[in-house]
Amino acid sequence: MVKIFVFVLSVVVSNACFAESEVSFPADWKDWMPVTTPLTKIGALPGCDFDSSSLPPIYQETVETYCSVRPEGPGAVAVLVTSSETKAYQDKLGKMQDGPVMILHLKELSVLFVTGYKEGKPTYGAYKEDGTDIASVDPSSPLSMATCRTCHTGYEAFCVNGQCASSSY
Ligand code: HEC
What we know:
Blueprint: H1 2-17, E1 33-35, H2 38-42, E2 44-45, H3 57-66, E3 75-81, H4 86-91, E4 99-106, E5 111-118, E6 121-128, H5 145-154
Antiparallel strand pairs: 1-3, 2-3, 3-4, 4-5, 5-6
Residues 37-40, 58-59, 61-62, 65, 79, 102-104, 113-115, 124-126, 143, 147-148, 151-152, 163-165 line the site of heme C.
C-alpha cells in the first residue's frame, strides 16, 4: 500500500515539476544550417523600449512576449534548419519530416526554441544548449508550449503549419 502511494506520488510530482517539451532535443543542432529570415536580418530580439510599430503585428507580439527576459532583451538570434529540410523551409509549405527540424537560437541566453513535427503536425520545445528541458507547464508562461502554439498557429495568414519566417536563398 505504501509502495503504491509512493509510486502514485512520484508520478504526480514528476508531471508537476518536470518541463515538458513536445519535441525531442536535437543533439546535433550545431551542424544545422543557418538561414536568413526577417528577424535574423534585424539580428536580435530587442528590449521592451524598442519601437516595433513598423513591424508586422506578429513581430510586435514576439517582442512584447520576450523583451522583458533581460533589460536589453533576449539579444542575438539565429534560425537553424536541419540540413535535409532547408529546401522545405524555403518552400514554406508546412511539409517537413517528423522530429525536430527548426530552431530559433537565442544565442546570448544559450536557449534553443525548437519546432518539429509529429505525424505532420507542429510540436514545440524549449531547451538550454546542453539539452536541459526548460519548457514550462504553466500555460501563461512565455516558455510554455501553449504560448508557442498560440502565436505560431494563431497567426495563420503568417505562419504555415508552425513555420513563421520566410527565407530566401
Ligand atoms: C508572439 C509570437 C511568438 C511566440 C509566442 C513564439 N514565436 Fe517562434 N517565431 C515567431 C516569429 C514571428 C518567428 C519568425 C522570426 C524570423 O523572422 O525569423 C518565429 C520563429 C521561430 C522559429 C524559427 C522557424 C520559423 O518558424 O520560421 C522557431 C523554431 C520558433 N519560432 C519556435 C518557437 C517556440 C518553441 C516558441 C515557444 C517557446 C515560440 N517560437 C514562441 C513568433 C513567436
